[in-house]
Amino acid sequence: MFMMFKKLRNSFSQVPLLGWLLGALIAVVLEYYLGDALADVLRLPKIPVLFGFVIMLKKPLLIPSVLIFVMLIYALPIGTVARLSAPVTNRLVAWLFKLPMIISVAIHLGLLYAILHLWSDISAYRVLTLKLTMIAIMVTLSLNVINGYMGEFSCSHPGFMALGAYGASVFTVVLFAKDKLFGAAILPAALGPYMFPVALIIGGIIAALGALVIAIPSFRTRGDYLAIISLAFMFIVKSMIENLEIVGGPRGLSSQPDYANLPTVFLWTVACVWIINNFVRSTLGKSLNAVRDDEMAANAMTVNTRQTKIVAFLFSAFWAGVAGGLFAHVLRYVNPGTFGLQKLAEVLAMVYFGGLNSVYGSIVGAVSLSMLGEALRPLEIFKWIIIPLLLILVMIYRPTGLIAFKEFDVKKLIKPKHKQEKEV
Amino acid sequence: MTYFFQNLVNALQWGSFYALIALGYSMVYGILMLFNFAHGDIFMVGAYIGFGVATGVTALASFGAIALPNWLILVLTIIISMFLTSFVGMLVERLGYRPLREAPRASAAITGLMIGIILETGNLAMLGAKRVRFPSLIKSTTYNIGGVFVTNKKIMIVAVSLMLMLALHQFVRRTKYGMAMRAMAFDYVVVPLMGVSINTIAAMTFAIGSALAAAAGILFGVAYPVLDPYMGIVFGWKAFVAAILGGRGSILGACMAGFLLGFIEIFVAMIFPSTLRDLIAYSIILLILTFRPHGFFGEPYSARLRL
């Protein structure tokens, strides 16, 4: 049994990433065209939305048909296509590998987007889940810069998100939407989608300016005191927005224009992962690690600790702000209550579940916890017993998270995977 | 002026809740150097256990099984619930913190947060979403002292919490176990080598902290008799702020900062519109920490911090 598993694993280890993506593409195309018919044959009410988790928990009688559906639509096509196409895709990838890397990366990302687009085209629920998951990835990554790479315990990210969300929302609502708070649109609505990146960047910059409140005290203090300062900052931001009647106060701000469609969110997420990954692998990123491990020694080794800290905070807050802006435009409604202690617990859980000091970890943590949150929804409140228990177990057996201290290397990810013998 | 004193009385009352909860944070911090983020929810559990005990004892008394005056029921409730809640604290320590003693501190913080969520949800699952009313055990009488209205409940709350704090102080200063706790706070690496079990002391610290939180929960229930499963969150985080403000690991500091937090909140609400309360209160705390980054009685940050 074990040997068989090992053999299977060996044979699949030759599949490059492109092969997996190709398989997934075939699977989603199959689902797109045959999904309804197959669901009908298997007497499912409709295509299982999240790989069947939701419907299996709701109606246990349907478990066999859901399993067959998932097997036929996802597992079989992905597995066979990926394995059978491996010789072809390997050669293709090897050829692409010689070209400038940007082309190869673009092809991979294009395929990934096509998969996500087709997959989410089935229902609006999938689109929303996907967008929120991608935003969670951005927030988690930006928090990982502070909590993982710099080793502080910052509790302020909901505050940064709130600043970004309100900054971007006010910009778009004032300029491009008719609203009861700000009156008619100033600029023609056709211009809106082009100005949306500007809105997000403004939101990010506002968040970064807010981060100065925490970055400056962080010169003198670390650890728990900084945690409190950042926590106080979060409360202050929330309370400030609640008292600003001009942006709606506690009732919140609505009628954001619908600019955050799937491609926009996808592009921003890719940009965020790319830039943060480059940042943490740069000299500055390494100096973050130096500050975390021993501030005094880092200072002696010519690391400018103040500059490092301030850049890290501003950078992290900027991305949290961008994510907040996207969040506001995805839901098209924000209120200050969203950015409270619950959001904080959620984001912290994603960072520590996925793994500190690792871009992979943040992606895994954000995706798995948001998907788990959606998949366990039928359990109602017991969801909030299962997820914390899972996190506690992860913390006990892997205290730094699932995939901690692992570098995200694009080159390694997209390179061809020939047989072991050939390489030697 | 009477207005001022009236608010002073209210501030003392709120301050005693914060101080009692902050003590639990501070003691655990002193020994294990990590914060028990489930503490706010232990406060909630304590209040609910108090509710259960009070209802049970009142029912027994009304059946005539035992004849007790109401104040004695309250005292019994406080004592029994403190005893029961201390086991909750020990359980949290055993399951959530002992396996993580060598892990990064932040992991333990996450575990604490998650235990808190489990306690909240567990309560919600067991008792349902409706709020429960704490039985009113003592009849409220109001005294008019020179224009300031003071209820007997407020006096009782402040007196009981001061008594508990004093008892804790005596315990830590005068007893063998208190000495072990102080030694552990001084150096938790060497003291276990001297034959003091860190597991015993840690469990005891959690137990005492939880008992104090339970007392705070019952006193809160006496003053504001509506309990809900999420009441511990805000109290917990605010008491955490107080514990830090007092200086980590300092019992006196935690008490004082708890009262200070109560004063700040009440007096900000007195002068400014009450919606600005959190904004101004936390800005003041931010300022205090910017100029005194290690709190009132804490030691300046040193290499001893393990991260």
Topology of this structure?
The complex is a heterodimer of chains A (424) and B (307).
Chain A lengths: L1 H11 L4 H25 L11 H6 L4 H22 L1 H13 L2 H20 L3 H26 L7 H20 L15 H24 L7 H21 L9 E2 L7 H20 L1 H11 L1 H6 L4 H27 L1 E2 L6 H14 L4 H17 L7 H15 L12 H5 L5 H4 L1
Antiparallel strand pairs in A: 1-2
Chain B lengths: L1 H31 L6 H24 L7 H28 L7 H23 L4 E2 L8 E4 L2 E4 H23 L1 H11 L11 H26 L2 E2 L3 H15 L5 H21 L5 H15 L16
Antiparallel strand pairs in B: 1-4, 2-3
Helix pairs in contact in B: 1-5, 1-6, 1-7, 1-8, 1-9, 2-3, 2-4, 2-7, 2-8, 3-7, 5-6, 5-7, 6-7, 8-9, 9-10
Q: Can you describe this structure?
A:
The complex is a heterodimer of chains A (424) and B (307). By secondary structure, chain A is mainly alpha-helical. Chain A contains 19 helices and two strands. The longest helix of chain A is centred in the last third of the chain and has 27 residues, at 305-331. The two termini of chain A are 29 Å apart. Chain B is mainly alpha-helical and 307 residues long. Chain B has a domain at 20-231. In chain B, the strands form two sheets. In chain B, strands 1-4 form a two-stranded antiparallel sheet. Chain B has a two-stranded antiparallel sheet with strand order 2-3. In chain B, strand 2 (142-145) and strand 3 (148-151) form a beta hairpin. Chain B is globular. Residues 302-307 of chain B have low confidence and may be disordered.
Primary descriptors:
heterodimer; A: 424 residues; mainly alpha; ABC transporter involved in vitamin B12 uptake, BtuC; 2 strands; disordered C terminus; B: 307 residues; two-stranded antiparallel ribbon; two-stranded antiparallel sheet; 10 helices; 4 strands; 4% strand
Number of helices of chain A: 19
Give me the strand/helix succession of chain B: HHHHEEEHHHEHHH
CATH architecture of the largest domain in chain A: Orthogonal Bundle
Structural class by helix and strand composition of chain B: mainly alpha
Instruction: Work out the helix count of chain B.
Output: 10
Number of strand segments of chain A: 2
Q: Outline the biggest β-sheet of chain A.
A: 2 strands, antiparallel
Distance between the termini of chain A: 29 Å
Sheet-strand content of chain A, in percent, reads: under 5%
The major β-sheet of chain B equals: 2 strands, antiparallel
Oligomer: heterodimer
Which structural class do the helices and strands of chain A define?
mainly alpha
